[in-house]
Amino acid sequence: MGFVGGLAAGALGIGGGAIFTPSLLTLGIPPLVVTGISLYLVLYSTTASSLIYALNGEMNFELGIWIAFWAICGTIIGLKIVQAYVIKTGKQSVVVWTLVYMFVVSVIAVPIFGGMNLKKQFDAGLNLLAFRPLCF
């Protein structure tokens, strides 16, 4: 599952979580465990991407620290809310529905914002079909 999921994620340019999370849920793994596994896998891809951007001098460290701070705050608050809900109700479905919601929002938002970006580049006179060198 790891090889096929990684190959599909790399070939399609999507996050592995979109492939691994539903697969693991289908195998009957509890949603809280699936979420932890998914975040653990994301750690490696984001670390590799960040390293590449930093080595190419394209990393904005101040913005990264600002985003990381608020992401950690949101994670802690969200974790406390979900833990309280799961303890109160005994249901882990809130995790599944949150993942479904985020996936649906992504499926809608990515093409819209991607199309807007392409239109802006086209209007600026960029040749969208031209190849760019790998090393800038």
The unreliable regions are none
Radius of gyration (CA) equals: 18 Å
Q: Can you summarize the main beta sheet?
A: none
Average pLDDT rating: 83
Structure description:
The protein contains 5 helices and no strands. The relative contact order is 0.07. With 136 residues, the protein is mainly alpha-helical. The mean pLDDT is 83. It has a domain at 2-59 and 92-123.
Features:
136 residues, 78% helix, single chain, 0% strand, mainly alpha
Layout: helices, strands, pairs:
Elements: H1 2-12, H2 17-26, H3 31-55, H4 61-89, H5 93-123
Short description:
With 136 residues, the protein is mostly helical. It has helices spanning 2-12, 17-26, 31-55, 61-89, 93-123.
